[in-house]
Write a structure and sequence with these properties.
The complex is a heterodimer of chains A (about 220) and B (about 375). With about 220 residues, chain A is of the alpha/beta class. Chain A has 2 domains: about 5-85, Methionine synthase domain (Methyltransferase, Methionine Synthase (B12-binding Domains), Chain A, domain 1, Orthogonal Bundle); about 95-215, Cobalamin-binding domain (Rossmann fold, 3-Layer(aba) Sandwich), CATH 3.40.50.280. Chain A has 9 helices and 5 strands, in the order ααααβαβαβαβαβα. Chain A has helices spanning about 5-20, 25-35, 40-60, 65-85, 110-120, 135-145, 160-170, 190-195, 205-215, and strands at about 95-100, 125-130, 150-155, 180-185, 200. A 5-stranded parallel β-sheet of chain A has the order 2-1-3-4-5, sandwiched between helices. In chain B, strand 6 (about 95) and strand 7 (about 100-105) form a beta hairpin. Chain B is of the alpha/beta class. Chain B has helices at about 5-10, 30-40, 65-70, 125-130, 145-155, 165-175, 175-185, 185-210, 235-255, 275-280, 295-305, 320, 325-340, 360-370, and strands at about 30, 50-55, 60, 75, 85-90, 95, 100-105, 110-115, 155-160, 220, 260-265, 285, 310-315, 345-350. Chain B has a domain at about 5-80 and about 140-165 and about 205-230 and about 240-370: TIM Barrel (Alpha-Beta Barrel), CATH 3.20.20.210. In chain B, the strands form 3 sheets. A 7-stranded parallel β-sheet of chain B has the order 4-9-10-11-12-13-14. A 4-stranded antiparallel β-sheet of chain B has the order 5-6-7-8, with no helix packed on it. The chains are: A alpha/beta (about 220), B alpha/beta (about 375). At the A-B interface, helix 4 of A face helix 7 of B.
Chain lengths: ~220, ~375
């Protein structure tokens, strides 16, 4: 950034570049901002996160499409690669810890990845266990990282049953009450969440992040 | 009434003696595990069907099962190139003839993509890439005899197994995020990639329909253009980049054979139905009723004069998690909405999944015949 440009201006431009899923533009603006002395956490919270927020709302409102949500997510990811080395442990106001993964038998991760990116941009620390995650790995991660929230994703109706398996295992291991459990993926709904003993079902990625936000803020 | 005539009338928007039934084909059929459980439930031992789609694990049911439930369709599948075998890896993954690698997680039911061979490609690489050969005679071997026999010796309507996806094949090769960026920002690449794939499909359909075109009633094509909540792409992107290629392929198919074109797209595809009609699509499947704005009464009212529907029996809630009575109600509802004046073949939305209880499959097939008789009862006003 030119030495004359003020930090608010560049954060605004980062936000706009992200909303336009302009990877090169976003990355180069982020580098400029760092060089200009803007703190990394501020680039995340007041630039990228605000952009993702706009993208999420536009998607919710039917103004943006899945392709655009995914591209914005990719842009966010690339920008975060630049920023991560500059983010100290307590330089961001951490909202909470989320352990997330796609359940066993299911390797679909487009939805889960969007949720992870949105959560990170909303200030959460996200421990992403990947796809095809067996119950034991969810349990281990809950014990090890002591998260506020456990998120499970499934695209296939055939793997939904494995979500219930994880919740049963949480109970068996005596850690069910330590975390809020949220589930997501096309086939899940509130009724299913209630049936298997989850705390909430997200009807899409943006809604899921909203729910997590409410939980940690309340 | 013979099945072939029944199907033709219904897809010409006329009523027949009843709605036709389908439980075959690679996108209107049944998965292997569901089929094995269903046939055991019917008291038949050791039935596995014939695997017709490895990735989805879909099987073609045995002839006696198709007959028992008066299924009106039979399917003709194109074959693989001569001597082709998927390249196998020890972790239950394989590479298909396009170079895409698929893997099934342990205990999983399906294969999903894990490697996209053109992910890092630039435009020049598309010329060098080893594309599958559409002219390979192995693909067409014996198809004319098979189709003719079905046409002459049976009364069933003939459909083809789905081929011809352009948008999906592009992102299979490129990865989903990369191809989205191509469509929005790197259009030259996107168009070149799609043209390579279109060219393959044009040449395949040329040969394929030379063999079977005289005998076939319905050609299945498709590209998923929507997800649960809406379209995958901004409609203008579909219209400017993908639709012209769909149009070229479907018009070509219709110059080759007198067939109905049945287009498969999952999800909330409603905003593009008018576009599909415009480019020669006659039938839409699978009518994912659980997706946004896919209410069947509304679809029939808005588009029913110009397009027919195959599918509509909810696969995300009712079939896997409902009771047989729920399934019966669902079938009745969809027939009430979609079957008046023809134009509807009830079926599960997409292939019947492994966890669908056999009682529900049975209830679906029986209810389709029970409630699908014309004249339909007057809808309560």
């Amino acid at each position: 950034m030119s030495s004359m440009e003020n930090p608010d201006m560049i954060l605004e431009r980062i936000k706009d570049a992200l909303v336009n899923f302009d990877i090169e533009g976003t990355v180069s603006l982020v580098k400029d901002a760092l060089r200009g002395g803007v703190p990394a956490y501020k680039i995340v919270t007041e630039g990228l996160a605000k952009g993702m927020d706009i993208v999420g709302k536009k998607y919710e409102g039917g103004e943006f499409f899945l392709a655009e949500l995914v591209m914005a997510g990719e842009t966010m990811k690339e920008a975060m690669k630049i920023l991560e080395p500059h983010l100290g442990v307590d330089s961001t106001v951490r909202k909470g810890i989320v352990v997330i993964g796609t359940v066993k038998g299911d390797v679909h991760d487009i939805g889960k990845n969007i949720v992870s990116t949105l959560l990170r941009s909303a200030g959460f620390e996200v421990i992403d266990l990947g796809t095809d995650v067996p119950a034991e790995r969810f349990i281990d991660a809950v014990k090890r990282f002591n998260p506020d929230i456990l998120g499970m994703s499934a695209l296939l109706t055939t793997t939904l049953a494995n979500m219930e398996g994880v919740i049963k295992a949480l109970k068996r291991e005596g850690v069910r009450d330590k975390v809020k459990v949220i589930i997501g993926g096309a086939p899940v709904d509130e009724r299913f969440a209630a049936k298997i003993g989850a705390d909430a079902a997200a009807h899409d990625a943006v809604n899921g992040v909203e729910i997590c936000r409410r939980w940690v803020e309340s | 009434m013979k099945p072939r005539e029944r199907v033709q009338r219904i897809l010409n928007h006329e009523e027949a003696d009843r709605v036709p039934l389908i439980m075959c084909g690679a996108h209107t059929g049944i998965t292997r595990l569901a089929y094995e459980r269903f046939t055991r439930y019917l008291g038949l031992d050791d039935r596995h069907g014939r695997l017709v789609d490895r990735v989805q694990q879909v099987v073609e049911p045995d002839e006696d099962v198709l007959r028992r439930f008066d299924i009106d369709f039979r399917t003709i599948y194109i074959k693989g190139p001569s001597g082709w075998r998927d390249v196998e890896y020890p972790d239950d993954s394989f590479r298909d003839e396009w170079g895409v690698r698929w893997k099934r997680p342990p205990g999983g039911y399906w294969y999903d993509m894990v490697e996209h061979p053109l992910e890092d490609a630039v435009e020049e690489d598309l010329e060098e890439y080893k594309w599958p050969d559409p002219e390979d005679p192995g693909r067409y071997e014996g198809l004319e005899e098979e189709a003719r026999a079905l046409y002459e010796k049976t009364d069933y309507a003939l459909a083809t197994g789905l081929i011809g996806s352009i948008f999906e094949q592009s992102w299979y090769l490129r990865s989903f995020p990369k191809f989205m960026f191509d469509l929005y920002r790197n259009k030259g690449f996107a168009e070149k990639l799609m043209d390579k794939i279109l060219d393959f499909h044009m040449r395949v359909y040329d040969r394929f329909l030379d063999e079977v075109g005289d005998y076939v009633d319905v050609v299945f094509v498709g590209d998923d253009l929507a997800e649960q909540n809406g379209l995958t792409l901004r409609p203008e992107i579909y219209r400017s980049l993908v639709k012209p290629r769909h149009k070229k392929l479907y018009e070509f198919i219709k110059t080759k054979a007198d067939v109905k074109i049945c287009y498969h797209s999952c999800g909330a595809v409603r905003p593009l139905i008018r576009d599909l009609i415009e480019i020669g699509v006659d039938v839409l499947t699978p009518v994912q009723v659980s997706a946004a704005n896919m209410d069947t009464a509304g679809l029939k009212e808005e588009y029913g004069d110009s397009i027919s529907f195959i599918g509509g029996i909810d696969t995300q809630r009712v079939l896997p998690f409902g009771t047989p009575e729920d399934v019966e109600r669902e079938v009745k509802l969809r027939i009430r909405d979609l079957a008046p004046e023809g134009g509807f073949v009830p079926a599960a939305v997409h292939n019947i999944q492994p966890e669908v209880p056999p009682e529900n499959i049975y209830s679906m097939l029986i209810s389709e015949k029970k409630y699908g008789k014309y004249p339909l009862p007057e809808a309560p006003t």
